[in-house]
Amino acid sequence: MEMVQIVGLGLVATLLILVMKEQKPLFAFVLAAFTGIYLFLYLIGKIDTVIRVLEDLASRSGVPAIYLQTILKIIGIAYIAEFGAQIVRDAGQESIASKIEFAGKVLILAMAVPIISIIVETVLNLLPAGG
Q1: Which of 28, 34, 75, 127 is an S-S bond match for 21, by CB 3.0 to 4.6 Å?
Q2: What pTM value is reported for the model?
Q3: Exposed, middle or buried: residue 129 (CB in 10 Å: 0-12, 13-18, 19+)?
Q4: Which residues does 8 contact at the CB level (< 8 Å), separation at least 6?
């Protein structure tokens, strides 16, 4: 039922935006941005539930919390970068949207380096010494 409400809100907002776009393009953009922000904030509660379950699973399995936190931060960066880029793209600023996406990718790479290092070290420790 929630998905029907989300789609309904999206359709109503889209119709209003299409009607307003000719007369007041700025208001149409603001409506699109606020609709997106509202949906994002609505879904944060769902994301919080998923994060709690993952944290519980990680603690029961013995996975160090730092790994899960880093992965969750990486996922968060990806979602936020995509969301921001889409809003900027809605405003017709494709080049800025591309830069936001690029910045997200760079930040994800920077956050992933410690995990990649640990994986490489683990693999190297598994290999026989002296090659």
Answers
A1: 28
A2: 0.76
A3: exposed
A4: none
Q: Side-chain half-sphere of 85: how many Cα atoms within 13 Å?
A: 17
Residue 100 · residue 88 · CB < 8 Å:
yes
What are the tens digits of pLDDT across the range 114-127? 888 888 988 888 88
Of 42, 13, 43, 44, the closest CA to residue 30 belongs to 13
DSSP state of 24: -
pLDDT for the residue 130? 58
Is residue 51 very low, low, confident or very high in pLDDT (cuts 50, 70, 90)? confident
Model confidence band, residue 131 (pLDDT cutoffs 50, 70, 90): low
Amino acid identity at 86:
Q
Spatial CB neighbours of 97, under 8 Å, sequence gap ≥ 6 = 85, 86, 88, 89
| Distance from C-alpha of 51 to C-alpha of 45, rounded to nearest angstrom | 10
